[in-house]
Amino acid sequence: MWVVCSDLEGVWVPEVWINVAKKTGIDKLKLTTRDIQDYDKLMKYRLEILDEYNLKIQDIQQVISTIHPFEGALEFTKWLRDISRFVIVSDTFAEFAKPLMKQLDEPLILCHSLEIAEDGQITNYKLRQADPKRHTVEAFQSMNFKVIAFGDSYNDVSMLKQAEVGILFCPPQNVIDEFPELPVAHNYDELKALIEQHIYEE
User: Which of 9, 15, 91, 156 is catalytic?
Assistant: First the structure.
């Protein structure tokens, strides 16, 4: 039996932080896990910028309210739920993800959370656990599931390598170059073909 685990941003929806950067004009917020491998370093950098520019959770949620899934994303997630068990495993935060999940018909998502002051200042973040994507795959494997996983960034790689099938989906060239052993899908059609090879092999 198979479980499909996927990333969120860059797979089903645009990158939240890039959109915040575009809306606010703060280019320093464009950096993502495609650029910086150390997630803790990246988040501390983001929190410093939010504090410097006095950006609150309300400002970010306002940007998120303008974000919509990629064309074909909703249909693809419905297909995955029809053929297998499907969970999104993301380094986003529950406070960011809720309106995005609503647009994707509420799939299960495992992600982190934020610490927010009364005035809306984001003071810190809480990881669900260290290396959560890999541990999620391991948890399913401990229940005798086989896992197909896909994502686009450095923070997905441990998940992809732990899974029986790991696929890079629309990754930047630097990630492709560093992990040539991982197959690459450049669109949903290619991703579907790779998944079908394994889902239906039994």
Answer: 9
Q: Which two tokens stand for residue 121?
A: 């200042």
DSSP code at position 9: B
Q: What is the per-residue pLDDT across 61-103, written as a single tens digit (0 to 9) for each? A: 999 999 999 999 999 999 999 999 999 999 999 999 999 999 9
All structural domains of the chain with their residue ranges: 2-12+72-112+128-199
Fold of 2-12+72-112+128-199: Rossmann fold (3.40.50)
Token output for 143: 């229940």
Catalytic site residue from 7, 15, 91, 152: 7
Q: b/e string for 114-141 if b means 16 or more Cβ within 10 A?
A: bebeeeeebeebeebeeebbbbbbeebe
91 is catalytic: no
Phi and psi at 41, nearest 5°, equal -60, -40
51 labelled catalytic: no
Looking at residue 13, the DSSP 8-state letter turns out to be B
